[in-house]
Amino acid sequence: MTDLSIAERIAQSLAAAAPDVLEVGPGTGVLTQFLLKRNDINLYAAEVDGESVEYLKQHFPELTPRLMFGDFLRMDLSKIFADKFCVIGNFPYNISSQIFFKILDCKNSVPEVVCMLQKEVAERLAEKPGTKTYGILSVLLQAYYDIEYLFTVHENVFSPPPKVKSAVIRLVRNEVDKLDCDEKLFKQVVKTTFNQRRKTIRNSLKPLLGEQKLEHALLDLRPERLGVAEFVVLTNAVEKLTKKV
């Protein structure tokens, strides 16, 4: 990133809902340098590239005690943070979905996320029901987070410029401690229906229901028409039917 004002803006977009903040993939510290200037946070960083880790140690020695060399996706975050922590970063586009699934796994410990990612993915996550871009992660993340699209980042602020635009979004944990359904089954229902999104829910749920017949008004819709509340209702209907067997 050649426009440092963008990096500074990302750093300032974090409200710091918890004082401990983990930067995912700091690289050469473009964002890190502005996070370190904030006196209201304790910055940690997880970096998988050894050369970047050495660069960060040389240029940001104050970060070294809290700089972790390793794959964020494989880290046991409960052993690193005793309490809640925020997540921030310029997420690698090829693993951004995996990062969000990791965050969902420890959602009760992560009150806030600020990240830059591919614009199309950012729009999808913040999208409301009823659109073609609304999908699995849209539902799963919106079940537990309020998602705000903050701003678009044009390709000309990078060298070399990528072929896609980027965007910055903020996720803030909502007040849902637990969904009013089996959360594991909820995730399964969401994934199953969207994996065959061109079909009505009646047809896409067949892998879960087998020969069992479920009757519900939602079954004649396609999954992109359902919000979190409707998926909760659908999950309870599926659970009630499967428990009868």
Polypeptide structure, described:
It is a single chain. The chain is about 35% helix and about 20% strand. With about 240 residues, the chain is an alpha/beta fold. The longest helix has 16 residues, at about 230-245.
User: What characterizes the major β-sheet?
Assistant: 7 strands, mixed
Would you give the CATH topology of the largest domain? Rossmann fold
| Annotation field: number of helices | 10
Total number of β-strand segments? 7
CATH class of the largest domain: Alpha Beta
Compose a concise summary of this entry.
Helices cover 34% and strands 18% of the residues. The chain is an alpha/beta fold and 245 residues long.
Please render the helix and strand layout as text:
Layout: H1 4-12, E1 20-24, H2 32-35, E2 42-47, H3 50-59, E3 67-69, E4 86-90, H4 96-105, E5 112-118, H5 119-126, H6 136-142, E6 145-153, E7 166-173, H7 183-194, H8 201-204, H9 206-209, H10 228-243
Helix pairs in contact: 7-10
